[in-house]
Amino acid sequence: MRKPRATAATSGPDGLASAGDVAAIVAGTHGDPFAVLGVHEVDKGFVARCFVPHAEFVTAYTLTGKKAGELSRRDAGGFFEGRLSLRKRQPLRYHARNAGGDWWLTDPYSFGPVLGPLDDYYIAEGSHLRLFDKLGAHLIDHEGASGVHFAVWAPNAKRVSVVGDFNEWDGRRHTMRVRRDTGIWELFIPDIGAGRPYKYEIIGPDGVRLPLKADPFAFKSELRPATASVTALPPAHQWGDDAHRNFWRNADPRREAVSIYEVHAGSWQLHDDGSFLSWDELAGRLIPYVVDTGFTHIEFMPISEHPYDPSWGYQTTGLYAPSARFGDPDGFARFVDGAHRAGIGVILDWVPAHFPVDAHGLANFDGTALYEHADPRKGFHPDWNTAIYNFGRREVVSFLVNNALFWAEKYHVDGLRVDAVASMLYLDYSRRAGEWIPNEKGGRENLEAVSFLQRMNKEVYGHHPGVVTIAEESTSWPKVSQPVDEGGLGFGFKWNMGFMHDTLEYFSKEPIFRKHHHGDITFGLVYAFSENFVLPLSHDEVVHGKGTLLGKMAGDDWQKFATLRAYYAFMWGYPGKKLLFMGQEFAQRREWSEARALDWNLLDFRLHRGVWQTVRDLNYLYRSRPALHARDCEPEGFSWLIVDDSANSVFAWLRSAPGGNPVAVISNFTPVPRDNYRVPLPIAGTWREIINTDASDYGGSGKGNGGAVEARAEGGSISATMLLPPLSTVMLEFAPE
Q1: Has 472 been annotated as catalytic?
Q2: Per-residue pLDDT tens for 546-595?
Q3: Whether residue 419 lies in the annotated active site
Q4: Which residue among 215, 330, 337, 419 is the active-site one?
Q5: Contact 690, 621 (CB under 8 A)
Q6: Which residue out of 81, 186, 472, 689 is catalytically annotated?
């Protein structure tokens, strides 16, 4: 048990606190309250001093209930002190009384510190990988009492206090102990438990009281618009997902089927009154739907705490707290476990690129630019009016790296999709000349951010095998998904933004003009294996006036549906993992809004149901055919069959992998059926049609080849003559005898 060292320096010869100390404690301006309050040795005996506003009388007791002494009121504001009949230093309880009644409280200043010298060492070094066990609010038993230990980093503050409903939000009552070597302030407050709102009251270096701050390490937060942090029990969920986690620990995700359903938890479905579903309600609806539709993963847009609904979670103020919008943190743990038991992985959108400047958040946290750069040329993001993390500060890097580890450990998430990586990598991102500061070598690369991303990826992959990281990176930065020891950033995958841009541009053209844009489709294969790619048709494509994927397709309504089905099959046959934003799997007609649920009634209509059935069948084929997924990231798994038929806007290629039959993917992107069309194939024999997006079951015209084609060897080559349905993609699988 750690004891506070004896401190009687502020006492007079009679053992009484100095008048200056008393006044400073009552005013809340004392820089070291532990030197005054609590139990102190004086003349081989002990005195107790406490600050109890509203009290007129205070009696001291040991934790076992033995009376230890009467304390005298030195100041009407509530400062008491007196001698104790104790033989050894120990924590105290006080019985306080006034004309209106009485109450009990345990003295936080009679307890020793919780953090130790090893914590100081690793925190100062920036190598502490369990900060989430040390900082924030933790319910603990300490020196014979139960309560909450609070710890927060604020190295430039003159004073930091814990305030909450347990002390009338009075910053004078629970001023914290500063650990000078690290700038960590800590305090154990007995007799409070889970569910108590709190914030930090911070006096900055200039003596000015800042707006109350939420805890950067809060594990639970109040429901917006309230912004306080909330004390919370540690996660108590009993996990049952060993089979799922063991599979991914031992798998190479590049060679597994990964088909991601991107979800905004606040608008996938809503209650009839417009309120959010809880995590348990989402588990009961979303998980079965994802299983039925055939996706392998759910990727949530940010679910950490954020104050503003229209930010979709990208303006996060509580990186360690699942948003209170959907219930208690344990509810999210139950959701992840339920998904895992159903064979579904859960990926979180993670935002280390920037943070909002809300007064209760990280901005100007201790009265200085602590988490952000002071110079707006490095510390302010013009695109989002947000602050940018100071990646050159080891404590900030440690805060973010620990957060990535936290979600993997505490909530068993399967991956982190890292938002806006390009904005982190370039110092001149969205800035004109003179608005940015070159790096130490005179370049535009943010070397500190590069180092942070490499460190984060090394720690995640090193401590949590089976968890993947995915970069949203829109430039040609090299080796994003290459290992750090090979000069890469260390991500597992990278979003292929070029695929999304080029293909959507192509399909927005009227079919008669597509022959002039043939290269929009073929160009992507030039770089398709330079990274481990995810092909994203994400939320970014269906907001801010961009409409929907269905609306982007050219032509009349029939052509739009046919083209969208053909596009999906083209994408599922294209090398790379898949991602589709919610609602696009059934051809949502209205642009997505976070303020309303998806238009689920559309599934009652044949054409919309046909798109959903197409996606469902594509997911089944993708997962069940190694040729379609096992070499998504390797050029050996892809070869062109038809690359230059721009006149007919026809494309064909072969997908192959060890352990599976080859699959040919043939797309006709005009509304004209092509009869007797010759398609080169590598093997003579029967090729079975495994999907045809023009099938009548999907809402198509029903044209096809009777379920199979025959490839024959003629003149030294092998080919099949077949019908290419209009605006369609057909997949053929070799069917050996």
Answers
A1: yes
A2: 999 999 999 999 999 999 999 999 999 999 999 999 999 999 999 999 99
A3: yes
A4: 419
A5: yes
A6: 472
